[in-house]
Amino acid sequence: MKINEGFELREMCGEHIIIATGVANIDFSKVISLNESAAYLWREVEGKEFTPATMAALLTEKYDIDEATALADATTLAHRWVEAGIATR
Asked: Which domain holds residue 18?
């Protein structure tokens, strides 16, 4: 997987949001809000190839979470990013 070009993580008013940048994304009308752990994962995988397993490993390194829960959460998040069009498989 990879995060699609033209999207950036920004912090606005204490919230982590994904915004579209550039002319190609001028019609992007959704605002995608990320919680702290999702924003952490975004920063860690941005510009790199990754899998849900990669994301799960990052979660277990940073947070007190077991591997099975981390993998389930990372898989769900990766699927949501693809559905939102901000990442591709």
From this structure: 2-88
